[in-house]
Amino acid sequence: MPGLVSVKTPPASTPLRIFPPENSQCEGSRNESPRVQRRMASPSPSPSTSTSRVRPSPDRGSGKKKSTPEKTVIDESSLDNPDLGPFLLKMARDTIASGDSPSKALDFAIRAARSFERCAGSEPSLDLAMCLHVVAAIHCSLGRFEEAVPFLERAIRVPDLEKGPDHSLAMFSGYMQLGDTHSMLGQLDKSISAYESGLKIQTETLGESDPRVAETCRYLAEVHVQALQFDEAENLCKKTLEIHRENSEPASLEEAADRRLMALICEAKGDYEAALEHLVLASMVMIANGQDNEVAAIDVSIGDIYLSLCRFDEAVFSYQKALTVLKSTKGDNHPSAASVFIRLADLYYKTGKLRESKSYCENALRIYAKPLLGSTPEEIANGLTEISAIYEAVNEPEEALKLLQKAMKSLEDIPAHRSTITGIEAQMGVMLYMVGRYGEARASFESVVAKLRASGERKTAFFGIVLNQMGLACLQLYKIDEAAELFEEARGILEQECGPYHLDTLGVYSNLAATYDAMGRVEDAIEILEYILKVREEKLGTANPEVDDEKRRLAELLKQAGRVRNRKGKSLENLLGSNSNPQGMKKEGTKRWSGFGFKT
């Protein structure tokens, strides 16, 4: 967990492992995390050679524990002593550095903060801000991320930007650590907001073209990629490239890292040719600097682009080239080799060579069955999930489900893994639905919905899709009223996030119409189907098979109601506004089913 630079820390203090080097000057503020290094003041920032954003994980220490002083009893009246705060903070740092009880260190740090606060009075104190960061970092190391947030929010309010760059950089560090903490809690929106506030302060303090601003821009761009906000990520990455071109040597490692991230963004936006160009340039830089492992990683990404462009022979060549290097440098059983096997399996599935595809899946599974020391649970879980998708594609849902269950077991239920667990649970729900285990599917979707609501992601397209899938499972269990409520909520979310004409939104409309018909609300179902048919005719043409299907379904309902099709266009507000009113819905227990199907 990244920390804050120590301002005016006693010189005799033992450096704390989770904090950057101490320096009370403006040039000495730095904030690091395992994901990306953010340097506020080092003269030559180290480049990040990886574009993947890994969540920061608490470092609880390892190795032989050293003895630490017994817990000191402090008289409350002595907190006014200006020497007590630095002493208690040193005790906290010594306790953590020795690998002893974090709870004891937390007690020292909290007492130090109280002493700094008393001595500072109403004046802004950098010592207090730094100490609050220490308290928050210890809470994070204990897995108490929710408890760390109030301390960080308070630490941000302590510095005064008008008192010089020291205060500005302290506030920057606070915002970045707060963003990391929200990220660990799966609260991406709050995380991005904190990072943006930190970037604004850093830019105002150091200037637009400072290399340290470029590192923060790239850091924030990676977060936007994780949040699937690719336009924002692209703008930040372009800014990073411009700063590095201005301040670095041509073909620098920093520029290579930027280009790898830009390639990822271009690929996500479907601009594969641009992504390929960025990757080739990055590869040339890495080759010139003798970075063999990084060249292999870039070759894997180049293979992905070739696969997207259906240039299969070139993709195989890139994958095999990367595999040869990874096996020679990291070993035959390294997870990075397994990830290449999975890509080759996917490629051969797409080219119809199912035997080769399954063979590569089995090669990857052998590696994940006995992972090397140092392999992370995330690597294993992600690999198993990708193999599961291939087994699902070849119509082996039971095997796919087993792999997803293994992936779930490999992850601990901690905030850092919750977003991954949520995605796996959602996929498990789909698999359970496919094999006819509807009760278990509903329970799985219900768990996903609860997690997304708790994390504040209840207005995303993914949340709307999960609600739709849960509604389908409820229909199979004859919980028609519950299904209708879920479809209505999904409809509202997808209208806002995807628009009323998106295929996912139209699919929910169709499911809602079928549910209304099953409940006996035939008129409501007819109105929705008339709108769906109008949109599909406009977008797909009257001869499209999907349009024919909607016409057939609408004709059946019109026949039941003794009506003919109303071809007058209706606004979406008038059409669906009345349907959101739950009054008039029949009580659960109605078993009349519609004569048409549902859209998954």
Explain how this protein is built:
Helices cover 65% and strands 1% of the residues. The protein has 24 helices and 2 strands. Strands 1-2 form a two-stranded antiparallel sheet. Strand 1 and strand 2 form a beta hairpin. The longest helix has 20 residues, at 165-184. The model is unreliable at 1-72 and 567-597 (pLDDT under 50).
Write a brief structural summary.
The chain is an all-alpha fold.
Main sheet characteristics: 2 strands, antiparallel
How far apart are the termini?
41 Å
Mean pLDDT: 77
Give the class from helix and strand content and strand pairing.
mainly alpha
Question: Low-confidence parts, pLDDT < 50 over ≥5 residues?
Answer: 1-72, 567-597
Work out the radius of gyration: 28 Å
Key features of this structure:
mainly alpha; two-stranded antiparallel ribbon; 24 helices; globular
Question: How are the secondary structure elements laid out?
Answer:
Layout (H helix, E strand, L loop, with lengths): L29 E3 L4 E3 L44 H14 L4 H19 L5 H16 L3 H13 L7 H20 L3 H19 L4 H16 L3 H18 L5 H16 L3 H17 L3 H17 L3 H19 L4 H16 L3 H16 L7 H17 L3 H13 L8 H17 L3 H17 L6 H16 L3 H18 L5 H16 L3 H19 L4 H17 L10 H6 L23
Antiparallel strand pairs: 1-2
